[in-house]
């Protein structure tokens, strides 16, 4: 986010209004979410960079707080189930070891 030099005039009014609505925790969350967003830092196709005035606008602040600009992560990989190939490089069946520990098997290794 570009650095600001002063908070006066319309900026002061906007910040006061957002503070009244969201409190200090809301303002903190706004700037934490904005700092963590690649999109708001220019990472989108058009290179848009959110500035202070954009962030403290009522509708924009609400969207940022709600996570609309959060980085998207790839969907999680499916968790292997019993009987699937969950062997590591040493040939140990990880799920089998865990099953043995949970169910009180001798050493947790598949036979």
| Residues in helices, as a percent range | 40-55%
Poorly predicted runs of 5 or more residues: 84-89
Please trace the helix and strand order, writing H or E for each element. HHHH
Q: How many helix segments? A: 4
Q: End-to-end span in angstroms? A: 58 Å
Nearest-integer average pLDDT? 80
Number of domains: 2
- Which percent band covers the strand fraction? under 5%
The number of strands is 0
Major sheet size, sense and barrel closure: none
SSE-based structural type: mainly alpha
Shape descriptor reads elongated
Over the alpha carbons, how many angstroms does the gyration radius reach? 24 Å
Tell me briefly what this model is.
The chain is mainly alpha-helical and 111 residues long.
Overview of this protein structure:
With 111 residues, this protein is mainly alpha-helical. The protein folds into two domains: 10-65, no CATH class; 75-111, no CATH class. Helix content is 44%, strand content 0%. The chain contains four helices and no strands. The protein has helices at residues 10-36, 52-55, 58-65, 94-103. Helix 1 packs parallel to helix 3 (58-65). It starts with 9 loop residues before the first helix and ends in an 8-residue tail after the last helix. Residues 84-89 have low confidence and may be disordered.
Topology:
Elements: H1 10-36, H2 52-55, H3 58-65, H4 94-103
Structure characteristics:
111 residues, mainly alpha, 2 domains, 4 helices, elongated
